[in-house]
Structure formats: C-alpha cells, structure tokens
Amino acid sequence: MNPLLFVYGTLKRGCSNHHHLAGQTFVGAARTVPGFRLYDLGGYPGIAAVAEERMGVVGELWSVDPDALARLDAFEGVHEGLYRRTRIALEPPHATQVIDAYFPALPVAGRPEVGSEWIE
Question: CB under 8 Å, gap of 24 or more: what pairs does 70-79 form?
C-alpha cells in the first residue's frame, strides 16, 4: 500500500505546484484534528501545531507511490532541512490511518497567520 500524504497548500488541486502529484491518487478532501494552523511563509504556507487552534487545517489526502514521495521530499527541501515529513492526525473518516504532512523545519513565529485554509 502506498503512503498517504496530506497536502494543504500549493500541492492541492488547482494550485501552482499540483503538477508534482501527477499520476498519484486523490483520496479525498480532508481536515486535520484541531490544534493546527497555517502560516504564510512567503507565497506558500507552512503548517504548525497551535494548541489553542480549534478549526484544524483543510487540505487533501493523496496516495503517493515511493518514487513520487522521494520527488516530493526533494521538492519540499527535506534533505536541506527546509521541511520535514511528519505524521499528522486527521478527522474522520481518516482518523485511523497513518498519514504524513510536510511541516516547516524553521519556526513560524512572526509569520502572518493564514488560518485553516490556503487559497491561491
């Protein structure tokens, strides 16, 4: 079974970097559990844990093959320390699944808050 990836920004359908998910399988719309918020990192978002956030983050769930995941890791700068791929909890019907998302490796303090949904 292919890994599941939650995307919340420019990788979503209709957004500027969606082409990086070409050939992968869209599972459906998804939302994180409460406790996450989006920040504007300069034309693209970053997700961060914020205990008092009650809305969660709106995004999409994708099934990605291992080759695509390696390409996405490169695109997100995982090996350069820009983002890290980390487990994230989603609301039902995906609550029991193992799902990853890309989190910025650098602090988001001082960045503009976007809220629960990135609109491009």
Answer: 71/20, 72/5, 72/11, 72/20, 72/21, 72/102, 75/17, 75/20, 76/102, 78/102
Closest CA to 27 of 57, 64, 75: 64
**Taking the complete model, does pTM exceed 0.70, yes or no?**
yes
Distances (CA, A) of 110 to 31, 41, 86, 107, 113: 24, 10, 22, 9, 9
What CA–CA distance (Å, rounded) separates 119 from 10?
A: 9
CA atoms of 117 and 39, how far apart (whole Å): 10
Residues with Cβ within 8 Å of 104's Cβ and at least 6 positions away in sequence, in order, are: 39, 41, 46, 47, 48, 82, 83
Catalytic residues: 76
Query: What percentage of the chain reaches a pLDDT higher than 90?
Result: 95
- Is the predicted pLDDT of residue 45 greater than 90, yes or no? yes
**CA–CA distance from 75 to each of 23, 33, 40, 83, 96 (Å)?**
16, 26, 18, 10, 28
